[in-house]
Amino acid sequence: MAHVRQVQITFDASDPERLTHFWCEVLGYVVPTPPDGFASWTDYDATLPVASQGRGPGCVDPTGAGPRLFFQRVPEDKVVKNRVHVDVRVGTGLEGDERLGVLEAESARLVALGATQVRVQHADGVDESCIVMQDIEGNEFCLD
Q1: What are phi and psi of 118, to 5 degrees?
Q2: Domain ranges in the chain?
Q3: Residue 116: exposure state from Cβ atoms within 10 A (0-12, 13-18, ≥19)
Q4: DSSP code, position 60
Q5: pLDDT of 76-107, one tens digit each?
């Protein structure tokens, strides 16, 4: 039986390159080195069939611990809520006002990058606070 060793999360996107750079900023990820023989991802992209051009190069965790994110161009806009979303874990181990302060500070940083804050969910005695966000293409994610 095969064991999964790596996970890639793939997003549908109207502008994969822009979304790649947004998520690099959110997570501290980097754009990987272009394939051998190419000085840049733009040079590589120009060699692809027209229908395959415009993909972002994706982004990777420079430590190798987190999953690779890939953004594929699709013709349709996003129209419904995600069935799966990313949790950006900035408040791990914190509680109450301290946690909420860290979440709100990160929300402000991401809003400056083009994200949208959707709502703040306050601690309710079972779950701690989190902030529901949308990235620059409307994909939901949580600051938690």
Answers
A1: -90, -50
A2: 8-73, 86-143
A3: middle
A4: B
A5: 888 888 888 999 999 999 999 999 999 999 99
